[in-house]
Amino acid sequence: MLILNFTKFPVLETERLILREHALSDAENIFKMRTNEAVMKYIDRERPKDLTDVKTFITTFNEGFENGDNLAWVIALKENPNQMIGSVGYWRTDYANHRAEIGYMLHPDYWRKGIISEALKRTIDFGFNNMNLHTIKANINVENDASRQILIKHGFVKEAHFKQDYYFRGKFLDSEIYGLLNPKH
After folding, report:
1. pTM of the model
2. Quick one: DSSP state of residue 2?
3. Is the separation of the CB atoms in 58 and 27 below 8 Å?
4. Gap between the terminal Cα atoms of the chain
5. Which CATH number is 175's domain given?
6. Is residue 35 one of the residues assigned to a domain?
7. pLDDT at position 185, please?
8. Is Cell membrane one of the keywords (predicted)?
9. What does 147-183 look like in DSSP terms, one character per residue?
10. pLDDT string in tens for the chain (185-residue length)
11. Domain-embedded: residue 5
């Protein structure tokens, strides 16, 4: 059985990025991203109504880490580690099968600069080498070609296309599942 038992939140670094724990001070940036229709176009989740919703969301994220349910990082540039520009992380951890779902988002000012790719590479390495995941999966909206391309670039393979399996805002939507196996298993 997979166990996520980190005594403290693992801060990760890349050449340009710091991946750190969510803080309540990130609430305003999260609110801006989660209410930005360009960012949320293919993220089929309800938008927060106010900063209180976002602070609850942050607390839930951090409690999820403490309970071993998820591990989600703020993406920040090393030159400004307190300014959140995106997020990346694992949730829906399936302990029995050593499998977790990865998700990510980035503020549009930072799109097409290789930031998600850099953050994904580091979190995938961490997932396989430190969390001992066997499989990392991603669930995307079928219209999200940018997300599809980044997953394929990082070695993910399409595992499934589900027809109308997700109900959001009055309609049923299709989804695609991508998977990446740990090369060491």
Report:
1. 0.91
2. -
3. yes
4. 15
5. 3.40.630.30
6. yes
7. 77
8. no
9. HHHHHHHTT-EEEEEEEEEEEETTEEEEEEEEEEE-T
10. 566 667 789 999 999 999 999 999 999 999 999 999 999 888 878 889 998 989 988 988 788 888 777 899 999 999 999 999 999 999 888 888 999 999 999 999 999 999 999 999 999 999 999 999 999 999 999 999 999 999 999 999 999 999 998 888 898 999 999 999 999 87
11. no
Q: Give the residue from 41, 42, 74 showing the smallest Cα distance to 57.
A: 74
Answer yes or no: are the C-beta atoms of 45 and 144 closer than 8 Å.
no
Tell me whether residue 108 is in a domain: yes
Overall number of domains in the chain: 1
* Pairing label, strands 135-141, 12-13: unpaired
In this structure, is residue 157 part of a structural domain?
yes
Domain region containing 127: 12-181
Residue whose entry in the numeric block shows the structure tokens 């997700």: 166
Q: How many CB atoms lie within 10 A of CB 59?
A: 12
Q: Which amino acid is at 28?
A: E
Please state, as a whole number, how many other Cβ atoms lie within 10 Å of the Cβ of residue 51: 13
